[in-house]
Amino acid sequence: MAAAYLGEPVEAPPSDGISRVIFSQSSDLLLSSSWDKSEPEQARESSLKFQTRSLAMYTDGRGYALGSVEGRVAMEFFDTSPEAQASKYAFKCHRRTEGGKDVVFPVHSIAFHSGYGTFATGGGDGVICIWDGENKKRLFQTARYPTSVASMCFSRGGDMLAVAASYAYEQGERDHPSDAIYVRAVQDVEVRPKARKAA
């Protein structure tokens, strides 16, 4: 499951039970139960303050993740009940310190692992982070790719990750590495959620 932002609405393809999520340039999120162009069931405003860069639906169909240009990911739920909405959250990612200053990179891509429901984020920093959304923990971080991680997708079995590394002009026009596609083997320990410790 992948989405790209090209100045047009960003759409996430269907996932069991949920059939359409569109995020427009005006920060409106439209949720629909049919893949045709009918009226949406819900219309929401993004919980992120800055432009949405990426969108992916949970593998269990309960919600979606949004990534922004400000290096944040929001975890949202389709269920509108107060209990479900109380579970949503956002977190910072794809940041590093350079020359004593905190540098923030956009989250260009989000991909969910079909087996575990964990997910990966790819950013303008050229790094992929794998997250356990249920436990709100980072599980793994790759070494930096030569340029921005523009898009990525897990294989159906979750044992491979295809990565498109392509400069996304986060720092304007400048010399940059050539675009490249990488396929990396995914180790189970990188994507398997950790068991919660008993309280």
Automatic annotation (TrEMBL):
<keyword id="KW-0677">Repeat</keyword>
<protein>
    <submittedName>
        <fullName>Mitotic checkpoint protein bub3</fullName>
    </submittedName>
</protein>
<feature type="repeat" description="WD">
    <location>
        <begin position="107"/>
        <end position="141"/>
    </location>
</feature>
<dbReference type="InterPro" id="IPR036322">
    <property type="entry name" value="WD40_repeat_dom_sf"/>
</dbReference>
<dbReference type="InterPro" id="IPR001680">
    <property type="entry name" value="WD40_rpt"/>
</dbReference>
<dbReference type="InterPro" id="IPR015943">
    <property type="entry name" value="WD40/YVTN_repeat-like_dom_sf"/>
</dbReference>
<dbReference type="Pfam" id="PF00400">
    <property type="entry name" value="WD40"/>
</dbReference>
<keyword id="KW-0853">WD repeat</keyword>
